[in-house]
Amino acid sequence: MNQTPSIVEQVREALRVVIDPDLHRDIVTLGFVKEINVDNGHARLTIELTTPACPVRDALKLQAEEAALGVPGIATVEIEMTARVRVTGPQGSLAPGIKHVVAVASGKGGVGKSTVAVNLAVALAQTGAAVGLLDADIYGPTVPLLMGADGEPEIVDEHIVPLNRHGVRFMSMGLFLEADRAVIWRGPMIGKALQQFFEDVTWGELDYLIVDLPPGTGDAPMSLAQMIPITGVVVVMTPQEVAQQIANKSILMFRTLESSLGRPLPILGVVENMSGFVCPSCGVVSYLFGEGGGRRAAERLEVPFLGEIPIDPMITAGGDRGEPAILAEPESAQALAFRSIAGLVAARISALTMNAEELDPAS
After folding, report:
1. Residue 170 lies in a domain
2. Cβ-Cβ contacts under 8 Å for 175 (sequence gap 6 or more)
3. Are 116 and 248 members of one domain?
4. What CATH number is given to the structural domain containing 29?
5. Nearest CA to 77 among 51, 44, 35?
6. CATH number of the domain bearing residue 336
7. pTM of structure
């Protein structure tokens, strides 16, 4: 004799209509539904996402609520949205507590790569993720200025304690250098310095470590890729045609490294910086460096396009006083762009991680 499924099971089955748009599976199959309790027509659900920076968090919550309310006998629904950043594969002996390493790269200097790295880190931290920022731009370490910090970090038990600003733990060679001192290092020295940034720094447990790489296709990105399992790379460029060509070389370099290392080194996407200037008086947009170059480069190389960051003097002014744009003008177009990009990066990482592991069925 067939038995009618319990109301809890009916709610679970109803939730299968809620599809994660990035993972293309329902939240029950993905194992996101962690708890279902029903008491006198009131359903309490716990849904655990793969990142606190999920860009569709609110949409998934609304869809789950509507699905549960469609079950006969359910009058009210209460949903707790939580997140746990997952990781698959080896994390490496150099960074055992770091779940994901995201390299921010550019084919050339002067495209705002460090500004993107800083705001990306702060945006992820604002969602509740544990975030670190490593300034690996040995020749031009600007992160201390952009983060509003100076002075050497504390050393405890022969390990360096990273500084903490704006909710982000960060480390930079610039914290140890005298002002206006040039750094003249050869390739092996760069690799050794990067190794020490992992071995000798007490990073603790991190969901994401954002690494601001030196511009170009030199020793630093190759050394980093060989030392630790990088989850993925964000490439920053400006819109003009020549910038597309240079960014292409950067992307091709990482693809070559991927082949030589024998493990994935995916391009998480392209960010177009300085994409347009909005006149504060008339609202007319002027594309000073061209239009759409980043999107065309992403399409040509078949990588995701993460978004455009407009030109705004406030970005420069905020960076000069150590206040990232996302904090200085939180409702501005550039702040919204940084938050959107951070969400897309987190979603891309989640997709790569979930697609690499065997999905556990819902209990």
Report:
1. yes
2. 144, 149, 150, 151, 152, 153, 163
3. yes
4. 3.30.300.130
5. 44
6. 3.40.50.300
7. 0.88
